Every structure is written in structure tokens, then in C-alpha cells.
User: Fold this.
Amino acid sequence: MSTPDPHPSSSGPRPPAGQAGAEPLLRTRGVDVVRDGRHLLRGIDLAIHPGEHWALLGPNGAGKSTLLALLGAVSHPTRGEVDVLGRRLGRVDVRELRAHLGHVNPRHPLHSPLTVREVVLTGATSTIEPDLYRKPSPEEAERAERLIDTLGITAAAESRWTTLSQGERGRTLIARALMPSPRLLLLDEPATGLDLTAREVLLDSLDLLRHQHPELASVLVTHHLEELPESTTHALLLRGGETVAAGPVDEVMTTELVSATFEHPIRITRHEGRWTARAAARRTPRD
Ligand SMILES: Nc1ncnc2c1ncn2[C@@H]1O[C@H](COP(=O)(O)OP(=O)(O)OP(=O)(O)O)[C@@H](O)[C@H]1O
Assistant:
């Protein structure tokens, strides 16, 4: 079994980023997930290419986390095919595959007081705690500094995990996830619980990151359209485990399709690249 190449630039000429002609980094075909006799996902078809940044949107219980777990090689489908970085789930060592994915888990199980820099460096070994028998290479140390800078947490580099704000933790985990140069970044509700400034700083960091790494692809799960970075290119709308729509963001993020997804009349507007959603029919105070 060969190892997926984590450094696309080393594998010769590639098609331009974000174009459907390129090999997909992720592909699902006819995917069902059934647990305890219940369909959590049904008939999911999806292809994600280099340079594409997908929003995965849907109401509570729609199946977003279930789908993200498949895309991150954390679980397997009941039926259908999932190819991650060209490898079919069920035929590949998923631990090896996961090492090439940047998966940002908001419930990162770290309790020791590592500094931001130390947490970012644990991304090089895909461990929670530092490997005490392994010193980071100069290249890893330099990459960690660059990522800390991109994510705008240089001032906090010496701060300890236990004292970080939720926003600083989120950005630290994204920098950590990027340490092994993954081709794909999976983000599960990265803006949940952030105040306005922290959310805006996080979204700016994601835009900058995507600009600096044009071949990177990402999937970002959220319930809130306001939490989508401007650089979002595609969207998948899920309701009750089924796809309502999937494709380029301007075709999918429409008043009609988002209303159908959330089963409520919602009006979508896009202003300066960002989205807002409001209930379309509002009652007046006298009603
Ligand atoms: N192991 C399981 N067995 C049975 N049902 C499950 C299991 N895991 C999740 N579910 C159910 O599957 C449905 C989809 O869950 P999932 O967490 O994927 O939704 P979600 O879209 O991420 O929701 P939220 O927005 O609330 O996080 C939910 O109704 C959940 O209760």
C-alpha cells in the first residue's frame, strides 16, 4: 500500500486549483449511513477538488457531523463508496490516511498547559501531547512560526493552552492541523461560541490561509451563514440526512434552497462577499 502524497507540489504538474478537471481529493458515491436501523445519511454524492472550499450547512440533526466523520476517515459508510485522497475507505489503513488530513476538532482533548507554539508543533506528530523523545526539526519549527503568523496568534505564541480564549484555541488548532501540509482541512463549527471580533479574526485568517495555499481544499460545517468566510466556493445543504443541493456557492446558497433546507422561509443576502440569513416573514409587534 503506498502512502498518499501530502505535498502535491512534489508530484509534478497539476491541473489548476478549484477546477473540476482535477482529481477529486474527496469523493462519495451513493453513501448511506445507517445506525440502529435509522438512516443518518442517504444517497450522498459529493466530489471535492483542490482549491475548493465547501460549506456544509443544515439544521440540527441533519447529518453534518456524520458526513464530516466519513470525510475525515473517522467512520465508514454502511453502503456506498468514500474515496479520501484517492484511497477507498474500507481498503486502506485509516490511521495512515488521517495523518494527511487536517481535522480540526473543537473538543481537542488537551488538558496540560502547553504553549500555543507547543500545541501547534504537536501537529507534526499528530499527537495530543508532545513526543518527548523527538525534537522538532528546524523546518518544522519554521513552519510552525509561519502558521502561527498566518493565523494571527504570534502575540500569544508563549501563552498557555489552559489560559487561551476560545478564539485563540480555535486558531491554534487550525495552525496545528496544517503542520503536516494536509491537502484537505476539515473544520467542525470553528466559529461556535466566538464573540464578534474573534469570529471576524478567524474568518479573515481562513481567507488568508486559502489565499496563501491555493491547492488546499476545505470543508467547514456550520449552522450559520454569517460564519462562512468570503473565500467559500461551494456549499452542500443537508436536511434529514439527504442532499437538498450541492455545487457552486452562488447557485446553492439561495433564498429558496436554504429555506427548503431549514424548513422555514429565510431570506439570504450576500454583501461584500459575506452572507446573512433572516426569517423572510416577520410578525409585527401588534400581531
Ligand atoms: N451512533 C448513532 N446512533 C444513532 N443515531 C445517531 C448516532 N450518531 C448520531 N445519531 C443521530 O443522527 C442524526 C444526525 O446527527 P449529526 O450529529 O450528524 O447531525 P448534525 O447535522 O451534525 O447536528 P448538529 O447541528 O446538531 O450538530 C442525529 O439525529 C443524531 O441523534
Summary: Residues 10 and 154 are 29 Å apart (CA to CA).
